[in-house]
Amino acid sequence: MHRSTFLQQSALLAAGALMNPLQSWASEKPDGKIRVAVIGCGSVSGMYLPHLTKSPFVEVVSVCDIVPDRAASRAAEFKVANRYTDITQLLAGEPFDLLINLTDMQEHGRLNKIALNSGKHVWSEKPLANSYKEGKALLDFAKTKKLRLWGAPAVVNSPQFAFMAKSILDGKLGKVAAAHAHYGHTGPTWSAFFYEKGGGSLPDLGVYNLATLTGLLGPALSVVAMTSTVTKERTVDNKGKIKVEAEDNAMVLMDHGNGIISHVQCGFNYFDPYGHEGKGQDHPTITIWGSHGNMALAGYDWAPYGVDLAVSWTEKPVRYEPDPKNYVWQQGASVVAENLVKGTEPRINVEHALHVLEIIEAARTSGQTGQRVKLSSSFPYPMVK
Question: Taking the model in full, what pTM does it have?
Answer without folding.
Answer: 0.92
